[in-house]
Design a protein that fits this description.
It contains two helices and 27 strands. The protein is mainly beta. It has three domains: 160 residues, Sandwich (Immunoglobulin-like); 86 residues, Sandwich (Immunoglobulin-like), CATH 2.60.40; 86 residues, no CATH class. Strands 7-2-1-10-11 form a five-stranded antiparallel beta sheet. Strands 5-4-8-9 form a four-stranded antiparallel beta sheet, with no helix packed on it. A hairpin with a 5-residue loop joins β8 and β9. The longest helix is centred in the first third of the chain and has 19 residues. The protein is elongated, with a radius of gyration of 26 Å.
Length: 344
């Protein structure tokens, strides 16, 4: 009788333990959210959570991205504290807390298995977006959703989204050079609320709601996106309108770079010299002293070491120079000096 009671107690404890250890959050498209401290890479990652009051040693457990191979990658001697978290980097490096597989930003599977290759927890997911994590609702762990503020090694954010507003606002005029005032009309055929800005900043939930045509009487950057309740806002669509400017069209191409003004001018938010503001084309603040002056020197590189190809633009068709690798725009430090550009 005592033996039967012991078996029942052990079985209950086993089931309790499995229910308290689970995949809590992951990011399959980590562009800049967190950097792996071992290899200084922006690697994809997944997070396990131990909801029990006992420490859990994962030695001999398995993680996999393939249902057919539950024992694909064996976890080493890693212990998760009670109510604690453990981060695993899905980067294919196969060492310590680095798995032997990578996460696909498209359709993929993540599975956690015990020492006997019995499933403890798993998740199948579809398309992922850069720097957006997917995880459990902190108020209802059985529900999965998305976070624009990822929290690796910490409790999931309370700002929980059930999906994405994927539709884009439509503009009646494309960005460009115009010799007269414009009236910009915005529309959407898939619902949602359109919010916009006119100062180059990102539209937020507190930005003006579009209800009436936007009258442009001077050069303006119009940025708009669609908001839906409970969903991550849609892509930001940007159009730069050069109104009544003394620009002669068709002599040289006009390249317009638009971003939040703070990225350029705010000393606290400005991207440090040498670090890219954008992934591709790669926009950098050039020179070691320009950041402290009102006028900056910016370089825009159109060739990277990844799969991106250089821009093919006929800047100088007479001399057959078509491949644009680097555009360097320089403002002299002297106030009022004329800017100059160099193209490589």
């Amino acid at each position: 009788m005592m033996r039967i009671k012991l078996i029942i107690i052990l079985l209950a404890f086993s089931l309790f333990s499995y229910g308290q250890l689970y995949i809590n959050e992951f990011m399959a498209s980590n562009a800049s959210t967190i950097q792996d401290p071992d290899y200084t890479d922006d690697a994809d990652w997944l997070e396990l959570y131990n909801a029990s009051n006992l420490a859990v040693n994962l030695n001999g457990y398995f993680l996999t991205d393939d249902k057919a191979i539950p024992n694909k990658w064996r976890i080493g001697n890693i212990t998760i504290a009670p109510k604690g978290f453990a981060i695993f980097w899905a980067d294919g490096k196969d060492s310590s807390n680095h798995t032997s597989f990578n996460l696909n930003a498209l359709n993929e599977f993540i599975g956690l298995y015990d020492t006997n290759s019995k499933v403890i927890d798993s998740i199948s997911y579809s398309n992922q977006f850069p720097d957006v994590s997917e995880g459990r609702n902190i108020n209802n762990p059985a529900e999965w959703g998305y976070f624009i503020t990822a929290t690796p090694n910490a409790a999931n954010s309370t700002e929980f989204f059930t999906g994405f507003a994927l539709n884009e606002p439509q503009f009646n005029f494309r960005g460009g050079i115009y010799s007269s005032n414009l009236s910009i009309l915005l529309s959407t055929d898939m619902g949602g609320v359109i919010r916009y800005t006119l100062d180059g900043s990102d539209p937020t939930p507190s930005s003006p709601v579009y209800n009436n045509p936007i009258s442009l009487t001077e050069t303006t950057v119009v940025r708009a996106r669609i908001f839906k309740t409970g969903m991550i806002p849609g892509p930001i669509i940007t159009n730069s309108y050069f109104i009544n400017e003394s620009i002669i069209p068709n002599t040289l191409p006009v390249v317009s770079l638009s971003t939040n003004p703070a990225n350029f001018w705010d000393p606290q938010l400005m991207v440090p010299t040498g670090l890219p503001l954008t992934k591709w084309p790669e926009l950098k603040l050039m020179g070691c002293i320009h950041g402290s002056y009102p006028k900056k020197c910016w370089g825009c590189t159109f060739v990277s070491n990844t799969e991106q190809a250089p821009w093919i633009i006929p800047f100088f068709t007479i001399h057959r120079v078509r491949v644009l690798k680097l555009l360097l725009c320089v403002h002299r430090v002297t106030i009022g000096a004329t800017p100059s550009c160099a193209i490589f």
